[in-house]
Amino acid sequence: MAGQVSERSARASAPEYQGALGSMSVNASLPEVLARGMQGVRAAERSGDLREVARCELAVAEACRRLGRTGEADRAWKASYRAARSAGDEGAMAWALWSGGTLARQRGAFRLAYRLLRLAAEAGERGGDVVVRGYSLAGLAETGRIQGDYEAVGRLHEQLLAEARRRGEARHTVWALEGIAQMHRNTGRYDEALALFEEAADTASRAEDRRGWAWALRGIADVVSVRDGDVERALSLLTQAEEACREMRLHSALAYNHKMRGNVLYRAGRYEQAREQYARALEEFREMDEPRGTALSRLGLVKAEARLGRDIAHTAAELAGLRSTLDRIGLRHARDMVDRAAAELKVGRLPDHTGDGPGAAGPVLPAVGAEALRTADPEGLR
Questions:
Q1: For residue 47, which of 80, 130, 251, 273 sits 20 to 30 Å off, Cα-Cα?
Q2: What is the DSSP letter of 351?
Q3: Which pTM was predicted?
């Protein structure tokens, strides 16, 4: 997996910013993107240019999603799709579907995410837009990775990394490196994970991709904390990443940064400080209606409070409730984290009330996800 991204990718681009917003930087602050997007929508509506309406609504949708304004993001991607469909523009339809699928994943609606992202990939292929097709395949791969089925998505991540490097797409190279690194980290291969996170940070820095750089620093901080116990370096890296997140108003990334800070402090035995960070992240994720981040922050908070003297019965009940929640969402890797927490805190065996969720013995991916990943074909990007 060593190798460098093509020299053509001297600078990362933001292909989701199109039309009147096509010159905007990948590092533009989200409030600026939102304001420009809404202005563009109004101008395009006045002139009756449906393609431009679709492009500007897409930028609005993505800005709102990353700001955690999920209701507005949902309305905007649907408006983008309607305008693109009325204009008969398959490529623009694909971008709107990609945005909707990404939002669905963020909200924990994985079945919907797979459906929308698969439709986006198909529309991108029909419209001859290899970029949106690549983004849609990457979205499918990331959805499967978040659900914890590394076997199903590992090869797709590797294929997309190779294709991103071939095309000189720094932003997608960084995304793929970070995804593969995260899978290595979660399966205990810390050296491999660190090397890939560091390569991602270097690639993002050279391409002036502040968002990708911030996510890579978070990954490096996680590994040096869990592998080396280097608390101060981890906290310093997270502080640098936080500055970038605040600069661009990346609310979701900032909340994950705060949760990771809680993880680092918890591993160091600084439970009071960890509890503060987990509570902070929990509030941020709840405001954004982001169930995955909410559940992971709750887990950290339960663990920190247990270490600070919360009684075992309360801790066991909280963990059992969290496991049911994660089953319902479909987050197998996170569910396993709850079981490990129960063992670590010595609360005894948790009751297994899986309800309508997939359950411990069921498949990780929903059928629609397994089929979407089975038919994903990066060869179409050539």
A1: 130
A2: P
A3: 0.89
